[in-house]
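Good morning C.,

I know you're traveling, so I'll keep this short. The sequence:
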Amino acid sequence: MTDKLLNIESMPSIKLGFTQMGSDDVNHINKYIDDNVDRLPDLSSSLVGQIKQNEKSKQLEFDLNDSVSKKLGNFFIMCAKEYAAAHPLSDGVIENIGSKEDYQIRKMWSVHSYAGDYNPLHEHGTVSGRGVSMIAFLKLPPQISDLAENMKGEIGVQHGNSGSTDGLTQFVWGGDSMYDIPRFKHPSFAYVHPEVGKVVIFPIWLLHQVAPFFGEGERRTMSCNIDIINSHV
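The tokens, ready to paste straight into the viewer:
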């Protein structure tokens, strides 16, 4: 007789993809943004983000014809293909939607946040309804990077940790109660701890939000939506 009676199997609810850009790549993207800040459109009036507390608060749309955007687009599409490969489709689904996949970048933009700026709970969208989004961290003030380092690995940081979510990105795919842990319910939210160069890949339907932070400095990220269009060959 074995010591254990049960074979426990986890049923995953969500998969997040992570990769890392090198410092040279991050610097190249930041230079592109800084050099073109006057010609790139500000999307703040059309996006959900409440990025308006500072005169430098902006959400800038990249020109997809620029060389930096094209290079980034190729990289993000490779990430999207790996994410899709981690979710293989059944023969029945493929027969229904088609086996040919076309990856199209719909939009790419940067978010320049300062003290008091925040992003309320929202999702992204694509024309096909199937696709992935990316968030890449490009600049972080020390109060966020230090906090992220201290809280790395923590998920449930709401209670008894005043200020520990400032400037963090939270993904939400369900509702939780503080009483759920003893009832064997696993968390249905997670925080991504920012690091310069970190890229997170997630499905477009996944709700996410960014809490405000306080103090000096810029929190700079960039995002990209990729539409995955299936068709029959």
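Safe travels,
E.
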